[in-house]
């Protein structure tokens, strides 16, 4: 060993041939050839697929910035690129170890992708990164808001067989969701996590309404 | 589907029985019963002085539940209605809650616990919060009724 390496953690100093280098990225050894590699998916020496470090969040995995406003097209593009390299189908001829790693990494990438794709799930995941979880049993919601949601649901059920009304409600609800997305983005931008939490709770209700409308559209045979 | 048509009727009945035994069934039959035939769905006049309205929501799942009670002069709950937009367990919990509070006095209804509802419906741990929501709805309806009664008596004493 001509190089002394202090591995595994972020912000580590690496002494290499007397030079001190500072890396903020995660380093670990390749399971196959022992070569220290940066937190890439593949070893830069032997090209073997690597296990992912445990501390990576979904944004890191997909390779986009940790931002609520990250464009969906970027997420989709990166996801497709990743799966074209990581999918278990690509590892049919490889060793069992690599097959196993591919299955795990690929399913993790899928999970990251589906979580980041929808604004609600993305927002809730960002709250999780701030260590905030929306409690299941907390029922002290704004009374007026609950009333509004109740009335909306009742109205939808009343007109569940009226195609025009259902389409009108869908349009209305979509506008509300877009507005909420913008507000949530602003809240995250201002680092106002309380506000983001409140808005995400509201969004959950409107997403439920959206799903309900989708269901009715399917029953009515509306083609989109 | 073609297979169903050519099967003798008795065998179809049998297959229903075996299907209900498969582990993919998530809800308890009692939950399904309340879900398919919910009791006391509807609304009471919320401006009526003898009616208490409870409106609660579960933020994590985006469920909303309205439970209303109508109380007679002797403090007995003579009618209860609910409306829930949420999962099957939430609907079943509130349906059962209206069934249970009917005929009880206001004080008796206050003693109703979410654990009783959860036990009756055999709710799994992940669905316990649905029964809590029903309990909260009853409590909210009762407290709304009490507030109405108190303001009524204070109105009278003012006169």
Q: What secondary-structure arrangement, pairings included, does this model have?
A:
The complex is a heterodimer of chains A (224) and B (159).
Chain A: E1 3-4, E2 12-16, E3 19-23, E4 27-29, E5 36-38, H1 58-62, H2 72-86, H3 96-117, H4 119-129, H5 143-158, H6 163-189, H7 193-220
Antiparallel strand pairs in A: 1-2, 2-3, 4-5
Chain B: H1 2-6, H2 9-20, H3 29-36, E1 51-58, E2 63-71, E3 77-85, H4 88-101, H5 106-110, H6 114-121, H7 128-158
Antiparallel strand pairs in B: 1-2, 2-3
Helix pairs in contact in B: 3-4, 4-7, 6-7
Q: How would you describe the overall organization of this protein?
A:
The complex is a heterodimer of chains A (224) and B (159). Chain A has 224 residues and is mainly alpha-helical. In chain A, 55% of the residues lie in helices and 8% in strands. In chain A, the strands form 2 sheets. A 3-stranded antiparallel beta sheet of chain A has the order 1-2-3, with no helix packed on it. A two-stranded antiparallel sheet of chain A has the order 4-5. Chain B has 159 residues and is an alpha+beta fold. Chain B has one domain (36-153): Sufe protein. Chain: A (Alpha-Beta Complex), CATH 3.90.1010. Chain B has a 3-stranded antiparallel beta sheet. In chain B, a hairpin with a 4-residue loop joins strand 1 (51-58) and strand 2. In chain B, helix 3 packs across helix 4 and helix 6 packs across helix 7 (128-158). The chains are: A mainly alpha (224), B alpha+beta (159). Chain A: Residues 57-129 form the J domain.
